[in-house]
């Protein structure tokens, strides 16, 4: 992960400085290398359930459960033009951080309240208009497998503003690579997609359905 990330980050910075704008394939290539290494050296396999709910090409919003770094790698390879909403602090990571926005990811200032939410929605709108698929983790951070967390309503503001349904997705990735763990256990990571939630669904019902998807019907 770190070796491939360093090499690809240096390459990305070079071609970015040379004026190339299409950097979105760099994180996808990195994720494929990492998943290949995890499969070969750590015994991590991947099973996707509900593939019929994967969005077609064009703008879409995925509301994904977040248990592990694995989730980022998986969604980078599942979608055609993925764009993550990420906490702005990640831009401070050496090499990798400087490329987050140029590769099409959307930063959010988690301490910025309403103004930060409006900017996030506006930036996501531009990404959606460019045909990107937005991945947003409503839990806001990695949550250990079997634990529950408060779901942030920002994803609802995004869905309402874009007039796009939310595609819920649950996972059991935390069973094999914990939120703050270095050890990786072999096994089959499951990602389960569910039918989209219509935009006109009331806010409390959206949050309730996401909670049920993540913690009741989710992958155990």
From TrEMBL:
Q: Tell me yes or no: is Acyltransferase among this UniProt entry's keywords.
A: yes
Task: Cite the Phospholipid/glycerol acyltransferase domain residue spans from the record.
Answer: 60-174
InterPro entries for the chain = Plipid/glycerol_acylTrfase
Keywords (A to Z) from UniProt: Acyltransferase, Transferase
What CDD domains does the record tag this protein with? LPLAT_AGPAT-like
The pathway it acts in is: Lipid metabolism
Which Pfam families does UniProt cross-reference here? Acyltransferase
Reply yes or no: does the keyword NAD apply.
no
- Enumerate the PANTHER family for this protein: 1-ACYL-SN-GLYCEROL-3-PHOSPHATE ACYLTRANSFERASE (PTHR10434:SF40)
Q: What is this protein called?
A: Phospholipid/glycerol acyltransferase domain-containing protein
Species annotation: Acidocella aquatica
Lineage here is: Bacteria, Pseudomonadati, Pseudomonadota, Alphaproteobacteria, Acetobacterales
């Amino acid at each position: 992960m770190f070796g491939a990330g360093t090499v690809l980050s240096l390459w990305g910075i070079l071609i970015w400085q040379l004026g190339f704008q299409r950097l979105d394939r760099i994180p996808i290539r990195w994720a494929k290398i990492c998943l290949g290494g995890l499969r070969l050296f750590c015994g991590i396999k991947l099973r996707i359930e509900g593939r019929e709910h994967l969005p077609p090409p064009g703008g879409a919003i995925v509301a994904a459960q977040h248990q592990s770094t694995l989730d980022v790698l998986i969604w980078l390879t599942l979608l055609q033009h993925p764009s993550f909403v990420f906490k702005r602090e990640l831009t401070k990571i050496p090499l990798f951080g400087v490329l987050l926005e140029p590769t099409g990811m959307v930063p959010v200032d988690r301490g910025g309240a309403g103004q930060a939410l409006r900017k996030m929605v506006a930036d996501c709108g531009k990404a959606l208009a460019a045909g990107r698929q937005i991945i947003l983790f409503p839990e806001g951070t990695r949550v250990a497998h079997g634990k529950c967390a408060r779901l942030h309503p920002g994803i609802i503001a995004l869905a309402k503003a874009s007039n796009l349904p939310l595609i819920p997705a649950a996972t059991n990735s935390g069973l094999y690579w914990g939120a703050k763990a270095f050890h990786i256990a072999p096994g089959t990571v499951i990602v389960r997609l569910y039918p989209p939630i219509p935009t006109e669904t009331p806010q409390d019902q959206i949050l309730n359905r996401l909670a049920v998807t993540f913690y009741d019907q989710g992958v155990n």
